[in-house]
Structures are given as C-alpha cells and as structure tokens.
C-alpha cells in the first residue's frame, strides 16, 4: 500500500492529456474520510429530533428546527466549492477544507448533546452542519479531479461504501452504549441521555481521524496538470465559452422573484398560517435579491467575484445537471421526510407512545437508530454491487430500480405492524441511499469542466438542499392538516416521491452515461 500511496497524484509524464488510472488502495485512501463525515451526519440524522423533543420541541416544530441543516448546506457548499477551485498550497486544492471542517465538526459534536435548551441545540445544529459541509463538499469534486471518467462510478460508489459503514456504527451507537456497555439510556426531563452524549463524543474522534487519514495519504493534481487533462476539450466543455446572461434578465427576473416572495410572506403573516411557510417566502426573496445583485454587478463591470460567478454558473449549468436536479429534488425530499419523522413515526405508530420521557419511547428511538444502521449496512453492500450493475444496465436504469426499491421500503412502514420486522423495508432504503450518493454524481461529473468542478458540485447541492427546505416548510403543515398529525404518513409521502425520482432519472439524456 505504501508504494500505491506514493504514486497518488504524481505528475504524469509530459503533462499527459488523460488522467491515469488509480489503484484500488489509492481510491480507498481518497474516499476513507467519508467514513468520518458520515459518522457526523448519521449521529445528526438519527438523534437530533430526539434531542429536540427531549428539550421540549413539539412534533409540529421539528421541521422548522431541522431547517438549520439544509440552510447551512445551501450557503456553505457553493462558497467552499468556489474557494477550493481557486486554492492551491502545500495540502493541495481540496484537502485544506477537509481538515479544517473536520476540526470544527469535532468540536461541534462534543457540544451538541450538552445543549442546555432547545434554541441552543438548534444553534449548535447550524454550527455542526456547517462544519460537516465544509469537510464534505470538496470530496465530491476530489473524485472528479483525480479519477478518469471510467473510474468515477467506482470512486463515488466507494464513497457510498464508507458512508454506509460509518453510518452503520454511528446510527446504532446509542443502542450499543445502552445494551452492550450498560450506559444509562434515560435521563430526567429536559436532559439528554448519557447514551447519546457518549455516542457524539466517540463520533467526533472518528470524524477527525478518518478525514485526517485522507488528507495525509492522498495527493492532488496541480492546476497545470488539470489544465492539460482538459486541453482536448472545446472551450464550452472547459466552461469558457458561454456568453454572460444579460444584466436585464437578472434585474427583471430578480424583481419578479422578490415581489412574489414578499407577497407570499405577507399572505402567510396576514392569514396566520404556519411559521414554517416563511421559509418559502424568504427563500423566494433571497433568490430574487441575488439576481438583482448579479445584474447590478454586471452593469458595473464587477463580474470577477464569488457572488456574481456563483449566480452566473447557476444559470449556465449544463443541461444534464438541470435534468439531474429534478431527480435530486424528489429523492432528497423523501430522505428528509424519513429523517424528520422516522423516530416519531416508529415510536407512535409501532410503539404506541408520544411520551418522550418514557422507557418505551426511548426503546423505540434506539430501535430507529438500529434501523438507520441497517439501511446504511445494506447501502455499504449495495455500493459494492452498484458499479457492476451500472456497467450492465447503465447508470440511469440502475438508479431508477434502486430508488423504486427505496420508495417501496418507506411506504411499507405503514403496513408493517411489528417493529421487529422493520429492518426488511430498510433493505430497499439502503439500496436507494447507496444509489442516491453515487449514480447522480457519476452521471454529472463527465458534464462538468475541471476548472469549475468544485463550484458546480456545490451548486448541485442546491438540489439536495432546496427540497429539504421545502419539506421543512410544508411537511409539518401537511402531516397536521391532511394526516391528523400522524407521523407515519411522512414516510408514506417519502415513498411516493422516491417513485417520482425513478421516473425523472429515465428522462435524463442518454449521452450522460459515463463513457
């Protein structure tokens, strides 16, 4: 392995026009940091609703409290992508962000379960999620930078494998702490159980160590080498040829979006509707204001700055990226529904309790952690098989089948009554999760210019975050008004949306398939 590591990212002779193939262990080292990153995300996904409810949150308040996670991703990922595209130093292009994000995520994971009240916990979620996003965002571009097109499906699948392995352990940590190590699983009202605290402490250490492994065992190609890899591409393929979007379109479109957002926000306030709906109104206003700002910057000739370039690249993104945005919207809305309502659905529908201080509730919440570990376990297994299936069927049919299995799994929570059998639908959810974390990126990476790999991967995150923000805005209202507050229907809605994602991926251009 030492010999393989020494060769990672070494200069190809005479600045070769194609990326050389990397060994298994080189790809392994590149992706190992995702083990730690997923420790952070899995602890967050499986336990934050539990922490919020323990600190006094009502079920209808969970979506608005969860808005911190997607909102920070929406802000952080394109900025980090833009900055990493322009970074080069002793640690390379992407790796400085891996390391600094991991350090701050470690600190946040230590503090999160010690939050004294609900609003400090919500604030800590912002900090924790921002730190995890700083570490995570460049990892997607890292694969696009370092691997030839034929190996990118393998690279993204390897990331999915580590995501699955990390989440297996992290999701089940409270259960293991209680049942294997005898750590107390209950606490006085308003206090977080010791099982959750110890899990977050352990997760922080794993996060830092795993990311450091990738930082110090992997290398990167220099800007000159990356430019050589792009030499045979057209200016348009290199992200250089597109004419700037006219300032008038930015100004006119921005004004319309701002007015619509303001009118919607006023209507929500005047009608006394759910506060979560303010997220939609504010989002529309922000999108409009950003367009107006881009138009003014262009008129002033000030286009060489991060704000303008991010907005411009958003409107100039490749056709395949636009198509995949629809796929991402449906699948991530479904996942967010599961993360928000998974604990509440199982504890109420299968364990029959809403009392967050009861032993039964905490037993059910721990079982949800095990179920999350199960789907991540099957995701790790599926990640090994997905590249082979994708080569036989193509990435698009492979992904469609996988997310259909996930949708069937989520919907079946409604009909399965015995909580001991809930691991069965998690097989489908795990297969879908592995596919969602790899197939869209494998389809996308070949359509992106190397010089903008980071910023476009950051912008692609918009279509992960926006459905989560919309879910945070409307899911609470839908569950309360349409389904009588029954959290189990959050999972049913997720199943339907997974099926729509399968339809959408088959509408992606066939030439997006990796060569």
Notes on the structure:
The chain has 515 residues and is mainly alpha-helical. It folds into 2 domains: 21-241 and 316-512, Growth Hormone, Chain: A; 247-310. The protein has 21 helices and no strands. The longest helix is centred in the C-terminal third of the chain and has 35 residues, at 359-393. The protein is globular, with a radius of gyration of 22 Å. The model is unreliable at 1-13 (pLDDT under 50).
Short description:
The chain is mostly helical and 515 residues long. It has helices at residues 2-7, 24-31, 33-54, 62-66, 68-85, 95-111, 118-146, 149-179, 194-217, 223-229, 247-271, 278-299, 306-315, 319-350, 359-393, 395-411, 425-436, 439-445, 453-460, 462-481, 488-505.
Major sheet description: none
Write the H/E string, N to C: HHHHHHHHHHHHHHHHHHHHH
Portion in strands: under 5%
CATH H-level superfamily title of the largest domain: MFS general substrate transporter like domains
How far from one another are the termini?
A: 29 Å
Supply the CATH architecture of the largest domain.
Up-down Bundle
Quote the CATH topology of the largest domain.
Answer: Growth Hormone, Chain: A
- Mean pLDDT over all positions: 85
Shape: globular
In the predicted model, the low-confidence regions spanning at least 5 consecutive residues are 1-13
The tally of helices reads 21
- Kindly state the percentage of residues in helix: over 70%
Radius of gyration: 22 Å
The class by helix and strand makeup works out as mainly alpha
* Number of distinct beta strands: 0
């Amino acid at each position: 392995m030492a010999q393989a590591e020494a060769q990672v990212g070494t200069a190809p002779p005479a600045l070769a026009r194609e990326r050389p193939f990397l060994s298994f262990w080189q790809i392994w080292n590149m992706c190992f940091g995702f083990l730690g990153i997923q420790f952070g995300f899995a602890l967050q996904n499986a336990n934050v609703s539990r922490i919020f409810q323990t600190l006094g949150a009502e079920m209808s308040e969970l979506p608005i409290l969860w808005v911190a996670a997607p909102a920070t991703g929406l802000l952080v990922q394109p900025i980090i992508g833009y900055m990493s595209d322009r970074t080069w130093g002793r640690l390379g292009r992407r790796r400085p962000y891996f390391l600094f994000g991991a350090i701050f995520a470690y600190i946040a994971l230590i503090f999160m379960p010690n939050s004294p009240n609900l609003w400090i916990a919500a604030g800590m979620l912002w900090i924790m999620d921002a730190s995890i996003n700083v570490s995570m965002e460049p990892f997607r571009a890292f694969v696009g930078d370092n691997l030839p097109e034929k190996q990118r499906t393998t690279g993204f699948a390897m990331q999915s494998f580590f995501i699955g392995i990390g989440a297996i352990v992290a999701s089940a940590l409270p259960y293991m702490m209680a049942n294997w190590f005898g750590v107390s699983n209950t606490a006085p009202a308003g206090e977080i159980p010791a099982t959750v605290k110890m899990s977050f402490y352990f997760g922080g250490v794993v996060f830092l160590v795993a990311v450091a492994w990738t930082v110090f065992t992997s290398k990167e190609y220099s800007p000159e080498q990356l430019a050589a890899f792009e030499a045979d591409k057209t200016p348009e393929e290199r992200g250089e040829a597109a004419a700037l979007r006219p300032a008038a379109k930015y100004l006119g479109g921005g004004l319309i979006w701002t007015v619509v957002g303001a009118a919607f926000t006023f209507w929500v306030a005047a009608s006394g509707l759910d506060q979560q709906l303010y997220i939609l109104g504010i989002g529309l206003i922000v999108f409009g204001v950003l367009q107006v700002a881009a138009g003014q910057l262009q008129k002033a000739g000030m286009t060489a700055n991060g704000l303008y370039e991010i907005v411009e690249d958003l409107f100039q993104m490749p056709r395949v990226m636009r198509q995949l945005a629809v796929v991402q919207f449906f699948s991530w809305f479904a996942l967010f529904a599961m993360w928000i309502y998974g604990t509440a659905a199982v504890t109420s529908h299968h364990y029959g309790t809403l009392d967050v201080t009861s032993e039964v509730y905490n037993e059910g919440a721990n079982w949800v952690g095990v179920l999350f570990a199960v789907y991540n376990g099957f995701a790790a297994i599926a990640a090994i098989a997905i590249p082979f299936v994708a080569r036989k069927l193509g990435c698009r049919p492979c992904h469609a089948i996988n997310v259909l299995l996930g949708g069937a799994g989520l919907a079946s929570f409604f009909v399965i009554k015995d909580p001991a059998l809930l691991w069965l639908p998690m097989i489908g959810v795990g297969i879908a999760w592995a596919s969602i974390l790899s197939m869209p990126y494998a389809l996308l990476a070949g359509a992106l210019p190397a010089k903008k790999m980071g910023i476009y991967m950051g912008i692609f995150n918009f279509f992960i975050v926006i459905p989560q923000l919309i879910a945070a805005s409307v899911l609470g209202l839908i569950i309360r008004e349409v389904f009588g507050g029954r959290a189990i229907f959050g999972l049913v809605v997720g199943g339907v949306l997974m099926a729509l994602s399968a339809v959408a991926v088959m509408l992606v251009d066939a030439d997006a398939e990796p060569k």
